[in-house]
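Subject: two folds for Thursday's group meeting

Dear M.,

Sorry for the delay on this. The cluster queue was jammed most of the week, so I only got both jobs back this morning. I'm pasting them in the order they finished. Each block is the input sequence followed by the predicted structure tokens. Could you check whether the formatting survives your parser before we put anything on slides? The first protein is the one we discussed after the seminar.
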Amino acid sequence: MSIDTRTVQNVARLARLQLSPEELDPCAEQLSRILTLMETLNGLPTEGVEPMSHAVDIRLPEREDQVCNGDQREALLACAPDTEQYHFRVPKIIE
């Protein structure tokens, strides 16, 4: 799959990245190579292969959930730059 510089510009804008014109061509080439590799991986036979979350079959140690340092809402909210009705307030990023 081939990615052109216009697509790179659009993705960079959506990701809020500022790329110089000199960076567009190398980025397009790198993204094209990545997508070509992904197409190759999609073509591999995976029928009968069980999904796994880790290469080694291990179980993570579990512990019982315990509340610690509870009821510190005011102290935690005091660290935030902006709050509203006991919630963190962040800038809107979806247009």
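Second protein, same layout:
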Amino acid sequence: MARTTPTPPDSPTIDAVGLAERVARFKARSLKAASKVSALKLALSMIDLTTLEGRDTPGKVRQLCRKAVRPDPADPSLPHVAAVCVYPTLVRVAKDALSGTKVRVASVATAFPSGQADLAPRLDEIRYAVAEGADEIDMVISRGKFLCGDHAAVFDEIAACKDACGEAHLKVILETGELHTYDNVRRASDLAMEAGADFIKTSTGKVSPAATPEVTLVMLQAIQDFHARTGRMVGMKPAGGIRDAKTAVTFLVMLRETLGPAWLTPEWFRFGASTLTNDILMQLTKQRTGHYQSARDYTND
């Protein structure tokens, strides 16, 4: 049953100039070698290793799961990633491949990536993915309804998706590249959290721009304000366009200084990525051996 749309405090207007200045300061930070290694390992443990292509096969998903558990076979001391994210029809393959590990299975749902379908089949898709073994569901909001100002409908859809998840966690994808303004990103973040989101997520990875530092900071600030007002922690997942370790570390600095150390865990922060993993592994090899390995030494995801 859909919940009644609450009337939360009005979302604040975003100061774009101030936002850019804060992001520039975060980007200018540098870490000492020991801290950098710790940050890179933490980032690795926060990755949702993702394959969302029409050509995905059970074999590709099983290979991805092996990498998720042991990102670098030459260095067994490295942590496993947080989750493997696949389409609903491949959830069972991932669940079986990850049996006995602590790597979770995430699935996109609700007519990903467009969200352009009636609510009933979108809810059925969530229930199917959960029945197949998904621990987490990444849903997309109806951006068209949001941009038309029908926020109550978007709220009710998110709440219905949360109910359909049962025990699975719900990550709500805002697709920030289609929301046009930082003010809209903030409003959508507030709306998703009020409707019951366990995580808010920037993007599907199919639209550009995706997880920019600026929209991520807007969403982190929304989480901060929501937690101060309600006491409930909500997770954050930037996804799309995060390809290098340096960018990932900048995001962790933003996270630490905005939300604090309680969020510095895969339980509350994720990177949605496919190519980020290899760059982190290359940087860790450089810190350990003093030289880079070739990108050819790692599997392509």
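Two things I noticed about the second structure. Strands lie at 47-50, 83-86, 104-108, 136-140, 169-173, 199-201, 235-237, 271-273. The chain has a mean pLDDT of 93.

Cheers,
T.
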